Prior knowledge:
alpha/beta, binds adenosine-5'-triphosphate, four-stranded antiparallel sheet, six-stranded mixed sheet
Amino acid sequence: MISAVDIENLYFKYRGMEEYILGGIDLKIEQGEVLAIVGLSGNGKSTLCYALNGIIPNTLKGELRGNIKIFDQHVKDMNRAELASKIGVVFQDPDTQLFSPTVEDEIAFGPENLCLPREEIGARIDHVLKLTGMEAYRYENPNNLSGGEKQLIALGAVLSLEPNILVFDEAMAQIDDVGKERIKGVVKKLKDRGKTIIMIDHDFNNLDIAHRVVLLKKGKLYDFKGEL
Ligand SMILES: Nc1ncnc2c1ncn2[C@@H]1O[C@H](COP(=O)(O)OP(=O)(O)OP(=O)(O)O)[C@@H](O)[C@H]1O
Ligand SMILES: [Mg+2]
């Protein structure tokens, strides 16, 4: 079976900076695997996420070397739509991810951009609202929701493109305990459904979801042995 993610000898430094943030990363993630990445602040966890979904080098510039493949296809050869249909990222701050006037519009945004048929878009909205437990908020303005609810909608917007790979970059860090549990519940469901999941989390309590934990330290990856 081909790997969901296959990173080979990846180096990256931001434009204008001296030091390599990623200094030779090799990582294979199998389909259906839940991988947690831990590491101290500034060690390049988010940078690795940006490289995985093409934000680096498309939006954030710098010097990138090595290979990143998703389902055997080079990320650099994939356009934005292809990438979004294969890998979705949920970031720390839901406010930076939401921009539509209603929850429904937010979730429909991606599928509409892919010009999917109306019925298909409707079916995806229903499915995502059910999966995230947010059916009652369909016509709400996302601004009126709690942090946890906003994050569930940000996740819903990503899920509406039905990517096999989901990346959570400290997605629970700013969320209250009730919201965290709800998000964790959805992540568990996604795991059970065989999605490939990359979780970056400072809270070791959330690591129990992961099949495997790796440590990113000074630009290199190690098996996590309990110490940062
Ligand atoms: N756009 C950028 N331009 C230049 N340097 C950057 C940029 N973004 C991040 N960096 C630098 O790259 C390094 C790694 O940052 P990154 O955000 O990837 O770390 P992180 O492990 O995600 O940290 P945290 O746990 O705080 O989220 C830091 O030194 C940071 O200052
Ligand atoms: Mg980060």
